[in-house]
Design goal:
This protein is mainly alpha-helical. It has a single domain, classed as Lysozyme (Orthogonal Bundle), CATH 1.10.530.40. The strands form two sheets. A two-stranded antiparallel sheet has the order 1-2. A two-stranded antiparallel sheet has the order 3-4. Strand 1 and strand 2 form a beta hairpin. Helix 5 runs antiparallel to helix 6.
Amino acid sequence: MKSTKTRLTGWVVALVVALVGAWEGLRTTAYHDIIGKPTICYGETKGVKMGDTATKAQCDTMLIKSLKRHEAGMRKCLNNPDKIPIRTYVAFVSLTYNIGVGNFCRSTARSRLNAGDWAGACKAATWFNRAGGRKVQGLVNRRQDEYKLCMQGAKG
């Protein structure tokens, strides 16, 4: 049975919250994201309806819960998640939060992580730069930021 524990504790959770929070941005009133999906807080879409509002404290709590939920889903499709260097791991939690567990689990990046090819996995993660079928510069930039963090871990 695969491990379902979390590595998002202490400074690690602070790092992933800072990374994701910076890229997602905080909006306390529901809005339509780039593909038209109702979104709130730091990019949360689950159960969101237009007209919803939240406080910053509610958004912060929602983000941490959502990151841990995405991390748990990510871990289920990894062979040895605890062997992945921590900065590489954080980059993949950020990616999974952004693209969803299903997309991550079907990805070449996941296959490369399972093969122990950290650098190859980091590179494959940069391919997720489209929304609504088109390349989005914000996603290109986010993937580059995640790639830099990812490679810090991959290089040891």
